[in-house]
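Cross-posted from the bioinformatics board.
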Amino acid sequence: MTGARLPEGGLIDRARPLGFTFDGKPFAGFQGDTLASALIASGVRVMGRSFKYHRPRGALTMGSEEPNALVGVGEGPDHEPNVRATTLELREGLRAVSQNRWPSLRFDALALNDLAAPLLGAGFYYKTFMWPATFWERVYEPLIRRAAGPGALSGAPAPGREDRAFAHCDLLVIGAGPAGLAAALAAGRAGLRVIVADEDARPGGRLLAERLEVGGVSGADWAAGAWAELASMAQVRLMSRACVFGVYDGGVYGVLQRTPDGPARNVYWRIHARRAVLAAGATERPVAFPDNDRPGVMLAGAVRALLNRWATLAGRRVTVFAAHDEAWRTAADLAAAGAEVRLVDVREDAPGTAPQGVELVRGGRVTGTRGRLGLTGVRVRDGRGVECWREADILAVSGGWSPAVHLTCHHRGRPVWREDVAAFVPGPDLPPGLSVAGAAAGAVSTAAALCEGDAAGRAAAEALGRAPVRANLPEAEDAPVSAAAFWLVEGVKGRAWVDFQNDVTVKDIRTAEAEGFGAVEHLKRYTTMGMATDQGRVGAVLGLGVLAEITGSGIAETGTTIFRPPYAPVPLAAIAGAHGFRPTRRPPTHGWAEKRGAVFVEVGPWLRAQYFPRPGETGWRQTVDREALAVREAVGFCDVSTLGKIDVQGADAAVFLDRLYANPMLKLPVGRCRYGLMLREDGCVMDDGTVARLAEDHFVVSTTTGGAAGVFRHMEFCRQCLWPDLDVSLVSVTEAWAQTAVAGPRARDLLSRVIEGLDLADEAFPFLACGEGRFEGAPARLFRISYSGELAYEVAVRAGRGERLAEALAAAGADLGATPYGTEAMGVLRIEKGHVAGPELDGRTTPADLGLAKMVSTKKDFIGATLLRREGLADPARPALVGLRPVVAGAGVSPGAHLFAQGAPVDAGHAEGRVTSAAFSPNLGETVALGLLKRGPDRIGERLRAVDPLRGREAMVEVVSPHRIDPEGGRLRA
Amino acid sequence: MIIDHPLCGPRDAREFTVLGDAAWMDRPDPAAPDAAEAFHAYACLRANPAGVTRELWWHEHGDRSWLVVTRDTLSHAVLKVELAEDVARASKAAR
């Protein structure tokens, strides 16, 4: 018989039955089940196939350390592979599928690998796939990937149901077993801000799996009571289903919380804790003997958990194979539940008498198992060396317990062997602020766990300046320690598994040792032991024990590898988060532009209108051409609110800006604007914009869209760190103003219909004037500046009035041909005019490179002044700004193309510059381009090759002035 | 990492932007005869100590203060946090 549900008992809610499917077949379980417990209770034993040999496997454990029972859950983009059936909470309608098998779990074609096992041992890849080298990527790896490995992702975009969160606390308690709960109670009662993170859906840890009493009630009830008391404390936060997977610098802990009922599937927490108590318990170790991996071979503690927590008898005929007293509880509990139990203890001198109804074999060994798709028999050698096969459906194994030391290794601490508990316990080099309590520290009894946890909680309170509150600990089991380690059944043939998930056997360890890879770190890499998704939580210590037996040196001398994060598998999607906190920024006229059918483009975090197609237009070029022509011939308007705007005020505002910009600002008159060129200290151009003086002590400066954050940071740096004596203050007002460029020969006509209170006649409001008028009764700032080279203004109104301004401009200018234009036409206009932008301001260009040398003041100090005078930056051979036009009419020139002299070889060494910006100019009827060319301004009229190897394009271009439209500037002064 | 801001209290390092060595605060005198060398060292040469270092951090998602954070690059422990404005004033007063 296989597993069956007992009629009563357990921590399941029998009033809430749940239906689910596994590989399409319907099953039933109860609220409180995991997928694994429900499957075992339904008689299912095979849940997966092994990684390399495709051996049928069932659940080995009942926890997050499970190496075998990995399944896929959900469908389509929601499909999540490699979910451990042992921690997956059952829910109504759950659809789980097995992995790594074809065509089915019961019949898997690649089980042939198992027959080829002699060829597939340790170092197999290194020895076999040596030659030819090119075959690795093209042939071997794809084949191996297909044959091996766990489940696959859906390939569809993630549904984005992940979230991230942050929390801070005084004490983080990792684990809610007896030690963790005692620590949390002690710390919480002392008033600390405590977070308790526990992997399980239910508090109690190991108590849930035992029949032990704590304080006179069942362990589960005591845990529930402690949890309720903690929940009543305002400064305590309880997190169940939350696995602490990593310890990072500065007391930061990475936590993955499953939130099956929340809007997110997983929440990735970064918890900053001043102190932490690791109370993560211990993991049971298997024993290496032939065919110890069959479905039905389970860890003794897992069999006990199935019985006590999930009211499931894993099998009727049970053999318990143990090396220590604690596993005798499994025999006793199973016998009490009516199973036929045989207890094989490796110790000749095992103390005590056999539990009621249990057949005890002292000094015995399990030397083999049988049953292809599930255990049917066990071969036992008794103390006198007599072997016989006995029928069995379950073999419960325990080679001892390994404390969950993993998190203590995350700062490179190394566990140490403790002979009295036969286990590696946390070493002395713990991560700062972390202490360890309970089974994780090697404590064996429940009473010891409670006591250590309580002490850790009180110590944390004391360390953080709180008076610990003394409380009596509940009565609990305090059995004397008699732990022993047992690794390997010697003197029998057959494959004995050590790392179940990566299919590493004793033979692989022997091979590695014989071939010179016997040091623990070498062994790990040569055999891949401990490198599967379970991080060797079940098998790694067993492997080290086996190695110690093989070499004859003790386990303490053999030592252990250490563990890295994550403690348990973490989906990458959970770390990536949905999209993080990255809001999309929309300019004030976004809604209006949407109504006009605009096409949008991402510019950093901003979404800007790229162009405004009209019905009947067949392509973006047609639209952009129309918009660019409208600006040159009539009037256009464009939202430029994304440009950074910084308000500068104070008695020393002018001095401050004069030191900041390369050109003079001190004597800028009130009511005037000036182009501002800002350098980095190394002399290269950092950003450009407009400086407008609204009052003696009040300026507003603009920055490029992309440079806004950096320029503001730089200005605050200069104010606070360099010139703290200046009376100046800065505020970023980018979001406060909706700014619209109105450009074209009819710009003045249009604006005078919309703006009141300001005389816009050229004499009253000339080029580079600024002033305040009113738009529909509210203040409007006007700046007469031009990016396009036309008569142009920028109008700034309060952000909330931006859409209204766009509506008003469109309505008032209908007869003038007022046309909204987007970033694409804006780019065309500025390239025609020869104005530099992002592609030219690439952080490597100087003012001279950009043809702006005359602007730079020689009479003052400013940021970048000294280093700008370096010889190399004054070299006339440096690439400098030129215009470029194709020689053949209709030819295109692409940005990024490199410039070569005719006849010169086309290679990196002979490139003389590059094309930075290019667009088709509807005003000139040809492509206009800007570029940086060595000695460029001296080479007007020269013909060069513009070669774009990336796009496989080439064009002959002529060097021209960058200012292709109105070089004298008559239009913008009109 | 937690930075104990003199005005805002302990804040997560994610609220800050780091600029680098606090030597950025000591802008050389452009009128000095060795200004070219001094500015070269100021802009380009940085010590990269394994141990205690002073860095400039900007509370970008906070009160916009520049801070001088003294920390140990070996342990990542924050040893001292000062307002850069105070440090700059004190260093000017000392000159």
